[in-house]
Design brief:
heterodimer, A: 137 residues, alpha/beta, Rossmann fold, 5-stranded parallel beta sheet, 42% helix, B: 363 residues, 3 domains, 11% strand
Chain lengths: 137, 363
C-alpha cells in the first residue's frame, strides 16, 4: 500500500477560554507533527463553539484540549455537548491536558473525556496513546 | 457510512458529512472515486478563487476578510487552506485557521485545513476534489489558500477560476526574481499591508510588470525598457488589451483592518465577467477537465505498474542487478512497462484491422 493510502491522524490542539499559557500546547503541537500527525492549532482564547466548529469542519480524529485556567469543569462539557449536536462526539478521541485535580479527572472522564494528561506526562506516552486510540476514518 | 449515504448527506447540507467526504477524498480512502464521481454531477456552480503569495504575505488574514465580506452579501463560502507537510515525519502544523477570527461561529463558512502531503505545487493532490465536494454541497464561493509560495507553486492556476497573487511591500527586489513563475499566473495582484513603507513602490513595480506582460512598452520605464522588436503585433497602444483581453488589476489592501477588501471583490467579480464574456472561462473548464483526466490516468497507471512490480517480486532485485552492472535503469523500465506497451500495440493492430471503428474502439 502506498503512503498516500495510509490513514493520517488529524488532531486539533485547542486552547479554550481565558488562559494565555500556550507553551505546553505549542510543545505538543510540535511533538504530534514530528510523530507524523496533522495538527491544527486553534490559537489562544477560543470559545467552546469555535472549538466545536473547528473539530467538525476539520474532521479531526483527536481533539486535545489544553486548559490551565481551572475552568475545565465548565468549558469541557460545553465542547462535548457541541460535538454531540453535530454527531461528532462518538468518533472523536478527546484528551485534556493541564492542571486537573484527581477528582475533576474522574468527573471529566464521566462526561466523555477519554484521557487526561497532567504535568510530567511524557510526549512519547501521549503520542503512543493517540496512535492506539485514534478512531478510524 | 457507505458512499451513497455520504453523498446524500452532503447534498442535504450536513456539515459533518461534508467534513467526512473531504477526509475520504484526502485519504484516498476506499470509495473515494465513486464519491467524487457522484458529487461531480452536482458541482460546477461555485466560483473558485485562488489566493497565493509568499509566506507571511497575509493570505490567511485576507481570506478571512474576504469570506466575511461574501457572507455580508448573503453568499455561502468554503475555504480550503493548505500548509506544507514535513518532509521527514509527514506530519504538519496547519495554522491558517488561527486567522479566521471574522467568521467565528458561522457554520456557513466551511473552513478546512489541508496538508500538502508532500505535493510540491502549492496544493495537495486532493485539493481539486475537495473543491468539488464544497461546490456540490452548495457553496457559492470557494476560496483556496495555497501553501506560502515562492516561485513555482503554480498548481492553483489549474484549479481556480481566478487567481489573486499577494505581493507584500518590500518584495520589490524580489519582483525580478519572481518574474518567471508565480507572477505570470496572476489574474489580479494584491499589494497587502499597503500601509507599510514601500507599498507605492511595489505597486509601481507591479504596474510595470503588468505592462510588460501585456506586451506594451511601460510608460515610465527608462533605459532598461523593452525594445519595440520584442512586441510583435502589439504596439504600445494595445497596452490595455493583452493577449487574452485582460489586464491584471493591482489592488491595495490592509487585510487586518479589512481595507481594500471591497475593491478586491469588485476586481474578482470583473474578472469573472471577463471569463464569461470572452469565452475564456469555458476554455479554462475544458483545460481543467483534460488536466484532471491526465492526472488520474497518471495515478492509475502508477498503481498498475506498482502491481506489476510487486508481481515480479519488487524493485530490489532489479536494483541489485543494476548495481552489479548486469543491466541499467532504462532496460529495467522497458521490461516492466512491456505488458502495458504490448496492450497498446495490440490495440493499434486491432484498430488497423477495423479502421471504421476509429481509435476509441473498446478493446
Amino acid at each position: 500500500m502506498s503512503v498516500e493510502e495510509q490513514q493520517t491522524i488529524r488532531c486539533l490542539v485547542a486552547k479554550v477560554g481565558l488562559d494565555g499559557h500556550d507553551r505546553g500546547a505549542h510543545v505538543i503541537t510540535r511533538a504530534f507533527r514530528d510523530a507524523g500527525f496533522e495538527v491544527i492549532y486553534s490559537g489562544l482564547h477560543r470559545s467552546p463553539e469555535e472549538i466545536v466548529q473547528a473539530a467538525v469542519q476539520e474532521d479531526v480524529n483527536v481533539l486535545g484540549i489544553s486548559i490551565l485556567s481551572g475552568a475545565h469543569d465548565t468549558l469541557v462539557p460545553q465542547i462535548v455537548e457541541g460535538l454531540e449536536e453535530y454527531g461528532a462526539f462518538e468518533d472523536t478521541l478527546i484528551i485534556v491536558g493541564g492542571i486537573i485535580p484527581d477528582e475533576d479527572e474522574t468527573e471529566l472522564k464521566a462526561q466523555g473525556v477519554d484521557e487526561v494528561f497532567g504535568p510530567g506526562a511524557s510526549m512519547g506516552e501521549m503520542v503512543e496513546y493517540v496512535r492506539e486510540h485514534a478512531p478510524d476514518r | 457510512m457507505n458512499t451513497e449515504e455520504l453523498v446524500e448527506d452532503v447534498l442535504a447540507g450536513e456539515h459533518r458529512a461534508l467534513a467526512r467526504a473531504i477526509t475520504t477524498i484526502e485519504n484516498r480512502a476506499e470509495g473515494y472515486r465513486e464519491l467524487v464521481s457522484a458529487l461531480h454531477a452536482h458541482a460546477g456552480e461555485a466560483d473558485v478563487v485562488g489566493v497565493t503569495g509568499s509566506p507571511g504575505a497575509g493570505k490567511s488574514t485576507l481570506v478571512d476578510k474576504m469570506a466575511a465580506a461574501y457572507r455580508e452579501r448573503g453568499l455561502t463560502v468554503g475555504v480550503i487552506a493548505i500548509d506544507p507537510s514535513s518532509p521527514y515525519s509527514g506530519g504538519a502544523v496547519l495554522g491558517d485557521r488561527i486567522r479566521m477570527g471574522s467568521n467565528v461561529g458561522d457554520m456557513d463558512v466551511f473552513f478546512r485545513s489541508m496538508s500538502a502531503r508532500g505535493s510540491l505545487g502549492g496544493l495537495s493532490a486532493a485539493t481539486s476534489d475537495a473543491v468539488t465536494a464544497l461546490d456540490a454541497f452548495g457553496k457559492d464561493k470557494v476560496i483556496i489558500e495555497t501553501v506560502g509560495a515562492g516561485q513555482n507553486e503554480i498548481d492553483i492556476v489549474r484549479t481556480a477560476d481566478s487567481v489573486a497573487v499577494l505581493v507584500p511591500p518590500g518584495s520589490g527586489d524580489d519582483v525580478q526574481m519572481l518574474k518567471a513563475g508565480i507572477l505570470e499566473i496572476a489574474d489580479l495582484f494584491v499589494v497587502n499591508k499597503a500601509d507599510l513603507d514601500g507599498a507605492d513602490r511595489t505597486v509601481q513595480e507591479l504596474r510595470e510588470l503588468v505592462e510588460y506582460q501585456q506586451g506594451g512598452v511601460p510608460s515610465d520605464v527608462g533605459h532598461h525598457g523593452a525594445t519595440a522588436e520584442t512586441v510583435e503585433g502589439l504596439g504600445p497602444g494595445d497596452g490595455e488589451d493583452g493577449e487574452d483581453g485582460w489586464t491584471p488589476p493591482i489592488v491595495e489592501t490592509v487585510a487586518n483592518r479589512g481595507e481594500g477588501v471591497e475593491e478586491l471583490l469588485a476586481a474578482l467579480s470583473e474578472h469573472r465577467t471577463h471569463l464569461a464574456e470572452s469565452g475564456e472561462g469555458d476554455e479554462q473548464t475544458r483545460t481543467r477537465y483534460a488536466e484532471e483526466v491526465r492526472t488520474l490516468l497518471r495515478e492509475d497507471l502508477n498503481d498498475l505498474l506498482a502491481t506489476e512490480i510487486e508481481r515480479r517480486g519488487g524493485l530490489d532485485g532489479y536494483v541489485e542487478e543494476i548495481v552489479a552492472g548486469e543491466t541499467d535503469p532504462y532496460t529495467v523500465a522497458d521490461e516492466l512497462l512491456a505488458p502495458i506497451a504490448d496492450c497498446v500495440e495490440d490495440g493499434d493492430r486491432g484498430n488497423a484491422a477495423r479502421p471504421e471503428q476509429g481509435p476509441t474502439a473498446e478493446d
